[in-house]
């Protein structure tokens, strides 16, 4: 949901920029042309861009929809219930597939990657944001300490749920590290696979292209 | 013939080359002269060797099969070449690259493979122009060797070579200032300098420069100066068919020749 909102903002700002650039080149527009170009903007601020938000959990979708309404995003969004290992979409449909903090919860990551490959158009991009492994040994120890000593405690105090946060931290440790995930993405058929560490490895963004 | 081809992606997994074919693994020669840093390029990237064996995605990819036979690098070159058509409209930007990708039947997201400031597009174009120039000079040399053409005097040769090379820029002259500024970005300087020096080298090579002494450096410095100043003049020239530019060029080359003669006399 959040990524969808950012994407919509991005598309809108790009279109505005393009429109500005076009207007700059036409020095002598009549008043009618100018008002026409502004009118267009209101009705199709997204152009042909659309975002599909997919989740396996209906409750999550509901939360997303509420948030969208609250923030005022109405056009260009669709909400679909689906399983990442078996997406309810046709082949070659999407330009970009993003998954943020979701692939860790998928049982068969390779299936999810294959599905991502399938629904992407040629040239399309796969992007995955996920917890990963910290390479720096000092930071790694501090991070472990924080993860196992602080997070579950906070979970208990704030949400009354120690177990879930214990599970969270453990699942992060069990998730494959950057290079391994990169190899898995390549196995699914993606090219130009690369990753970028954020916060020296606590989180990583992996990217691949369907070529 | 020394031909410096610029490859858009550093640390490319060249072993992704020829998915269906060879059994040997090729590793990208990381020549230090063409090394460059992309600021926003993902860190921690190591050139990796692709696993052997048939790719499972060969079958059933429909129109993609043609891509299976070429390397990533070749595809990137194709995208950049296609993107050149969109430069007059979009400038040397990622948008032009996206449009280029679309004409090849790829999603616009493929432009994400390249740096977001259009660097690769400019470098690709410059590299292409240099290659064309080399081919042109090579052909001319062949004609001379076969006796079908006269060998030009050095100043004429230099003038013609520089003019030919600069004329290749004319279709993009509106956006050329932008291109030059991109070439001067710190992270592009190693590559753009490389391309420039190898082009100058080529011209002198075909001009018949056999020197092995200090003259080698002076000649290159002088020609580089001539080329760069003429390029700048061209960007501001509004005369028909850039007559002013070629006249400027003629004068600069004549000056250089005179300087050389005077130096010899002293």
Automatic annotation (TrEMBL), chain A:
Component of a multi-subunit COQ enzyme complex, composed of at least COQ3, COQ4, COQ5, COQ6, COQ7 and COQ9. Interacts with PYURF; the interaction is direct, stabilizes COQ5 protein and associates PYURF with COQ enzyme complex. Gene3D superfamilies: Vaccinia Virus protein VP39 (3.40.50.150). It holds the Pfam family Ubie_methyltran. PANTHER family: 2-METHOXY-6-POLYPRENYL-1,4-BENZOQUINOL METHYLASE, MITOCHONDRIAL, METHYLTRANSFERASE. GO terms for molecular function: 2-methoxy-6-polyprenyl-1,4-benzoquinol methyltransferase activity. The gene is Coq5. This is COQ5 protein. One of its GO terms (biological process) is methylation. Keywords: Methyltransferase, S-adenosyl-L-methionine, Transferase, Ubiquinone biosynthesis. Methyltransferase required for the conversion of 2-decaprenyl-6-methoxy-1,4-benzoquinol (DDMQH2) to 2-decaprenyl-3-methyl-6-methoxy-1,4-benzoquinol (DMQH2).
UniProtKB/TrEMBL annotation, chain B:
Keywords: Lipid-binding, Mitochondrion, Transit peptide, Ubiquinone biosynthesis. Residues 18-74 are annotated as: Disordered. One of its GO terms (cellular component) is mitochondrial inner membrane. It is found in: Mitochondrion. GO terms for biological process: ubiquinone biosynthetic process. Pfam families: COQ9, COQ9_N. Its main location: mitochondrion. Residues 20-29, 38-48 have a biased composition (Basic and acidic residues). Belongs to the COQ9 family. Homodimer. Heterodimer; two heterodimers of COQ7:COQ9 come together on the same side of the lipid pseudo-bilayer and form a curved tetramer with a hydrophobic surface suitable for membrane interaction. These two tetramers assemble into a soluble octamer with a pseudo-bilayer of lipids captured within. Interacts with COQ7; this interaction allows ubiquinone (CoQ) isoprene intermediates presentation to COQ7 and facilitates the COQ7-mediated hydroxylase step. Membrane-associated protein that warps the membrane surface to access and bind aromatic isoprenes with high specificity, including ubiquinone (CoQ) isoprene intermediates and presents them directly to Coq7, therefore facilitating the Coq7-mediated hydroxylase step. Participates in the biosynthesis of coenzyme Q, also named ubiquinone, an essential lipid-soluble electron transporter for aerobic cellular respiration. This is Ubiquinone biosynthesis protein. It comes from Corythaeola cristata (Great blue turaco). The gene is Coq9.
